[in-house]
Specification:
0% strand, 298 residues, single chain, rod-shaped, mainly alpha
Length: 298
Amino acid sequence: MNELVIKLKGEVTDTNFDEWKNELIARVKNVNTELVKDDDFAIAEDDVKAIKAGEKALKAAKASALEQADEIQKLFAAIDEVSSEARDARLALEKQIKKRKSEIKDEIVDEGVAAIEKYLQEQSAALQSINHSWLNRSAIEETTKGKRTSTSMQKAVTTLVVKIKGEIAEREDAIKENETTISDIDDSYSAIFQDAESLALLDADELKSTIEERIEYFEEEKKKQQPEPVAETTTEPKEEEPEPEPEESEDSDDIHPADESHVISIEIFAQVDAAQELFDEIDDRYSNREIVGEIRLS
């Protein structure tokens, strides 16, 4: 648009009003109001005509000045009208700019969230089960604050997405290392590591200490359940006197020597419920036999 130029001068630029006024006032003051002779009437009538002409001249001058003032008023009105239209257009455009910037920001943030979601779906189920903050939309949206252009917002979100993907990859590698550590445990301890999936989510040091504690506790419990060995004694062999042969009786087959005992130990590698179930089955089946002294679960 071209530069707007309006020049006004707040003063009368050309007039002889003061001189003309003085002449009219002087004539009015010199009017002869004592009319006696015919000449007096003639002069008075001329004065009337002159004063009347002066009145008309004043009215015409005032009208001319008002017309010039009216042009200025019209100019001011036109300026106000154009100013109002310009303001309405500006406000509408500012509103549209704000709305569109917000839409673009939301689109960029949505793309960032979608990129992280897609990357997570490519990882293991164990990693996806973790409660994490990688999909915190507010954190991603926060990076766009203070960015005036879509390019700067896109750059900020992209940088954050790359950082989050790096954190996800590091966690995935850590889980795989833990899974390898768990798989290397001897199969004889498999019963105490049935929660391998949740164990794989632990910190590497925490997993190591957990494995060591469980195996140590398992071995201690295993030792407690083993029967104490019978001490062997060595004595000089002596000739045994022949025992008298027992008298035969009809019930000879049901006699069991009371001085002989044996311990049967069953080692169970299972959870408590499964071990209790097997114990109850054995107890129900064998506890009522005469040769069974005690059945217990440790």
